[in-house]
Amino acid sequence: MVNKILFITLSNIGDALLSLPVLDQLRANFPAAQITVLSGERPREIFEANPAVHKFILFDKKNTAGKNIKLFNGLRKEKFDLIVDLRNSFLGAVLPARYKTSAFLKIPAQLKHMKDRHLYRIKNIARGKVFPVPPQSLYCAPVDNERIGKLLEENNIGKDDRIVVLSPGSRSHTKRWPKERFAELAKKLRAEFPVKIILIGDKEDVENNKYIAKDAGFPVLDLSGKTTLGELACLLRKASLLITNDSANLHMASYLDIPVIAIFGITDDEKYGPWSKNSYVVKREIPCRPCQKAQCKFGTLECLSLVKAEDVFRAAKVILTNCGLLLEACAKQDFKRILVVRTDRIGDVLLSTPVIKALRDKYPQAYIAMMVSPYARDVVEGNPYLDKVIIYDKDGAHKSWFNSLKFAQGLKKKKFDLALILHPVNRAHLVTFLAGIPKRVGYDRKLGFLLTDRIKHTKQRGEKHEVEYNLDLLRYLNIEPLDKGLYMPVKPESEKWVGELFKREDIDETDRLLAIHPAASCPSKVWPAERFAQAADNLAQSYGFKVLIVAGPKDLQAAEEVAGHMRSSVINLAGKTSVSQLASLLKRCVLFISNDSGPVHIASAIGTPVIAIFGRNQAGLSPRRWGPLGLKDRVLHKETGCIECLAHNCKKQFACLKAITVEDVVSTADAILK
Q: With the C-alpha atoms ordered 529, 531, 532, 538, is the resulting torsion angle positive or negative?
């Protein structure tokens, strides 16, 4: 019979909370036993006034040898029947007892979480069978509950209000998600749900929480440094959700079976993650995590900085809308590190962005990178669903095979487990093969034998849009995209550039802007310059447009030719904008008229109506495959009876392009604008 139990627990609050399920088991197995708890100073509040605990004894690891001997003698006189020592301390080893946990017990490797490992240590003690026990060892005193109720009432938080508690602190700075992200998250939560936001933490978190409360822009109850552990337990019992770093609050909410979203970086979520039924870990599976180090050896702390507010909000949305099954599905990660490869032109890369979004939806915790050419960087840098942009410069830094091999070795260190090669080119297939990526999915063309999973290449038939061809690689992996929209990031620095440009060129925010892009990658795609000029003049006269010409540095002559034919005043910006600046500029335009080119898809992605002029009639180059996708976008394309398109070697002086008249463009613009 067990009448007296000594429970030696750990010194940190979080670790002590992780041991409470063991205390529950001891109480359930030995309901008549008196339990003495021995722990350090920090968890003292959990046990000292707890009715479940007969006696609390403080252990100070700085004790002198004399004090430790005195402590030992005092404990020996208690004549404990059972000693459960989770610290593997000298006291647990030398104190006499009929039953004791063993410091040499081999715990099964499949038991990862510390809660489960603690429970396993008492599995074979006396009658101690581990079975489901409700949480009953975290005491919430009536006075604590009363004070929390009063605080909520004073801040207009009623019994029926849904409470989301944010815990932005942690003992180590390497576990703290940036305060700016917590503030952004609070705004997203408030905009989407009728919830009340409460901030918690200790005195060290006061300044950070002040920033979050102020930046949120709406009333936030900040209780940092104002609650005891007992009061905090009472508060969490009233919460619908806790969002936290790896901290003691995580384990308190888990013990109380409150839904938890935990943001993890350097530490191991398999050991210390949340354990309530409806909980979720937000993390980025970069190769170096979990390092469990006190300092990031790279000095970047990418494991936390890559986690965006949108990632946490996505998980919160699932919990707050009670989609438990969806949450469970999101947690399954077939792939941890994914590389998307598309090294061709700007428009092609932009048409690949739905793949990134679909991957993030399917694998919210994965580290997702995209390999692109230098000139396409602006298309994906700043994409919220992407963690890293990797530049492969086949015409510059990586032109030689030796440098490409070095590049592949660098990729190998990132330990990608999936590569999606969206457009088949020799180098993309070779580089991902040499990088040792175990699963490489792509189209069976141009060294396609280097892929592990090959899909038949039929793009030349032009049977569907390029976006669909890209998404077919995901469908091969049984991923059906929820959203096929393009995404073009708009950068603050580019927005600022446009503001300065407008001041220089005397453009008001109320002015209506028409942008035209008279260039393209091939002469077979270029509508005559004089027709661009006539169409722009007609529209400027009819709608009061200010006209902008945009083009790349290689197309200055084409832009100057159009400007020279125009009667209206025109602002020629050819060669003066980066890809990002072009996006910010087109965003302010009422209409964009362009040859078949990358800027068509930029305008479409940001919501500016497009008239795209197509010439060539080859199936693989048709509007069906490459046309803009916006609801107001229009394509002008006419068949002229060509049996075979000779592209730039056309013998008909590009009759297909000349068949498109100025009136065609103007009437199409009228239809869009009116």
A: positive
Q: Which amino acid is at 479?
A: I
Quick check: 51 and 82 in contact, CB under 8 A?
Answer: no
**E strands, 286-366, in order:** 337-341
What does each C-alpha distance from 291 to 171, 286, 302, 416, 626 come to in angstroms? Answer: 17, 10, 12, 18, 45
Strand partners, 29: none
Evaluate if residue 126 carries a pLDDT over 60.
no
CB 340 within 8 A of CB 356: yes
What pLDDT digit, counting tens, does each position of 376-403 carry? 999 999 999 999 999 999 999 999 989 9
Beta strand segments in 591-645, E? 591-595, 610-614, 634-637
Q: What is the DSSP letter of 509?
A: T
Q: What percent of the chain has pLDDT over 70?
A: 95
Q: What is the pTM of this model?
A: 0.86
Within a 13 Å sphere around the CA of 372, how many CA atoms are in the beta-carbon half? 22
Which H or E run contains 418? strand 418-421
Closest CA to 370 of 353, 358, 351: 353
The two structure tokens encoding residue 529: 């310059």
d(CA 322, CA 430): 45
Q: Which residues of 87-110 are buried (b: 16+ CB within 10 A; e: fewer)?
A: beeebbeebebebbbeeeeeeeee
Q: In what order do the strands lie in the sheet with 260-263?
A: 221-222, 195-199, 162-167, 241-245, 260-263, 279-282
Residue 317 and residue 192 in contact, taking contact as beta carbons nearer than 8 Å = yes
